[in-house]
Design goal:
Length: 402
């Protein structure tokens, strides 16, 4: 087990580091994409007015900057998202590498999994990771939407200025957001794990991503015998990862729309569903497929792809940066591991050398001290003789020689 666990931890740690770097770089775009996914629902439920909607990704950036306090508005909820992304990535790479390594044991002639096995391994790893990170994901989504809802003008209070900083209430803290979710959804599990069914379906996204990446790698590297399968180079790694993410996101994007809406939990939608279904906290909207069908029926197929352009752009740079950073960090971890391993194996010899050097240094120090003392004594004697000689001359004392 240790033979597969150590490589898994190495990939997990490097993957988490790469995810943190890519999240820092692409978080403003992620915040904009979240709002684009749910603004149609917010308008239909009366939470925002039609003029509060964003026309495009660029319009969203300009509006947020002007209405919500400048550049800092693009990083609302960043701390929680960094923690969630790092944990999500660490757990996914840990489970993915561990599951995949176990499946490849004993396959010397086939260094990769079959299609269905690759998809199953990715989906299983994603499901295990999302089980732990869905609560934080819910909080991040709510905090990303908080300033949007606060800055938007209510239809019933159009006299208030949406651009005025004083008209916005401060963003809720992490704990306040958790309590709000639990209160609205009617319980800890029902609230904090809202959208987990969508997350299970969306586990196909990373598995499809890695599947596409493996296929592209076989098509490209398979024809270039001079390139290493595990290290195709920085440029090719980025392009393979980014392209595969775009392909996977195009397939699973409607489920991301449904997940975002389930996590936001607009009050108007919940009240309508409560009246129709007699259930608290979302009724028929609790299921991912029921949410998809409701969106298609009431808003059309086009609503399932709101903001897909920004999501594809984010996926291209985010996943490409993640995998490039992961490979670089993983290489450093491997080098550090073997360096420490080498030091550990050679520790007796190194310790003997250090002891010998310390002993020699002490001997030289003692020798130099003795020689220095002898020199100082000689200098002292000469100084005393010079002083006595000068005194005799001053007093006019003449030595009588026999």
């Amino acid at each position: 087990m240790s033979s597969t666990l150590l490589p898994s931890i190495g990939h997990a740690a490097s993957g988490a580091t790469g995810t943190i770097i890519s999240t820092l770089l692409t978080y403003p775009l992620d915040l904009v994409n979240t709002r684009l996914k749910v603004q149609r629902q917010l308008r239909s439920d009366g939470a925002i007015r039609p003029e509060d909607e964003y026309d495009s990704v660029l319009d969203a950036f300009v509006t947020i900057y002007n209405k919500e306090g400048g550049a800092s508005a693009f990083f609302a909820g960043l701390g929680a998202d960094l923690a969630k992304s790092a944990a999500d990535s660490f757990l996914f790479f840990l489970f993915y590498t561990w599951f995949r390594t176990h499946r490849l044991v004993g396959r010397k002639n086939l260094p990769y999994l079959k299609v269905l096995e690759e998809l199953a391994v990715g989906a299983s790893a994603g499901a295990c990771a999302k089980l732990f990170t869905t609560p934080v994901s819910n909080v991040v989504t709510r905090r990303q939407m908080a300033n949007f809802l606060n800055s938007a003008s209510s239809p019933t209070s159009s006299s208030s200025s949406p651009t005025s900083p004083k008209s916005r209430s401060p963003s809720p803290s992490f704990a306040e957001t958790v309590n709000q979710i639990k209160k609205e959804k009617g319980g800890t599990f029902r609230g904090l794990w809202a959208g987990y069914s969508a997350s299970l379906v969306l586990t196909l996204n990373p598995s499809l991503t890695f599947f596409c990446q493996q296929i592209l790698k076989r098509l490209i590297i398979g024809r270039r015998r001079e390139q290493n399968w595990d290290d195709p180079g920085a440029k090719l790694t980025f392009l393979l990862a980014a392209t595969s993410k775009v392909l996977a996101t195009s397939v699973t994007y409607p489920f991301q729309i449904a997940k975002a809406r389930m996590q936001v939990g607009v009050r108007g939608q919940q009240d309508d569903e409560n009246k129709k279904g007699g259930q608290r906290g979302g009724g028929g909207g609790d299921g991912i497929f029921a949410t998809l069908e409701r969106i298609r029926r009431t808003e059309g197929v086009r609503a399932l792809y709101d903001g897909i352009g920004g999501e594809l752009l984010k996926g291209f740079f985010n996943h490409g940066t993640t995998m490039l950073s992961k490979d670089l960090v993983h290489g450093l971890i491997v080098r550090l591991y073997f360096f420490i391993l080498g030091l550990t194996a050679r520790w007796p010899q190194i310790r003997a050398r250090l002891v010998a050097r310390l002993t020699e240094a002490r001997r030289k120090r003692m020798t130099m001290s003795a020689e220095g003392l002898e020199i100082r004594v000689g200098r002292g004697q000469k100084f005393v003789e010079d002083v006595l000689g000068g005194g005799r001359k001053l007093l006019g004392v003449v030595e009588i020689k026999d």
